Amino acid sequence: MMHELLEPNALPAVFRFIDLSGVILNGILGGLIARQKNFDIVGFVVLALMTATAGGILRDLMIQNGPPFALTDPYYIWMACLGAAIAWFFKFEGKWSHRFLVVADAIVLGIWSATGAAKALENHLGFIPALLLGCMTAVGGSMIRDISVGRTPAVFGGNRLYALPALAAAFTQASLVRFVDLNPVLAMLFSMCVGAGFCLLAYWRVWQLPVVGKQRSLTERIGVLRRR
């Protein structure tokens, strides 16, 4: 079984399975935003679809190698709707539910960063485009979702690290395939772990990138140095 999964022609099947796993998890996350906003079932489905498929659709449109997977494979739409239904019927309240959502979000980030970079390389794009498409696949859906509900996208700052773990996963995938010549399936699994692990570590350690509002100006810094 493991030998079959490591065959080069097994990449599309593994890619699809991993991608669909991310779709259902992100469908749940999108549905929970709809629950917070007190939306009806249409809002649940729309936000789930945006969160679960928009990043992949943007990736496939930029690669321009046929229609996006989410529009040609019916399971993508159904899995996103299933995620919306789960969020509709379950409130995900309490400590363990919160932990599940944090872990699910990290796993999705790792999944889509790795699959985005893998698909870019599979279509003979370069190293840098693979990084960009990996990050876009991971954060594109959540950005569109946040804008749709009138929120500043979380990836823009003031929150735990999100873009950097996505970049780390995409970088790992592209490096292992391009420079180490590792089996793409193994590279994808390892890159997913890197992205998810980095994201969870950033959440646990409350790591954030510096933002302008929290930084002292140059004049203030000079004044502090003079007083010393």
What does this entry look like structurally?
- It is a single chain.
- The mean pLDDT is 86.
- This protein has 228 residues and is an all-alpha fold.
- Helix content is 75%, strand content 0%.
- The protein starts with a helix and ends with a helix.
- Helix 6 runs parallel beside helix 8, helix 6 runs antiparallel to helix 9 (184-205) and helix 8 (163-178) packs antiparallel against helix 9.
- The chain crosses the membrane at residues 13-34, 41-63, 75-92, 99-118, 124-141, 161-180, 186-206.
- Pfam families: Gly_transporter (PF03458).
- It is found in: Cell membrane.
- It comes from Actinomyces graevenitzii F0530.
Largest sheet: none
Mean pLDDT: 86
SSE order: HHHHHHHHHH
pLDDT < 50 stretches = none
Backbone shape: globular
Strand segment count: 0
Q: How would you describe the oligomerization state of the chains in this entry?
A: single chain
Give the domain tally. 1
Structural class: mainly alpha
Organism: Actinomyces graevenitzii F0530
Main location: membrane
Pfam families: Gly_transporter
Keywords: Cell membrane, Membrane, Transmembrane, Transmembrane helix
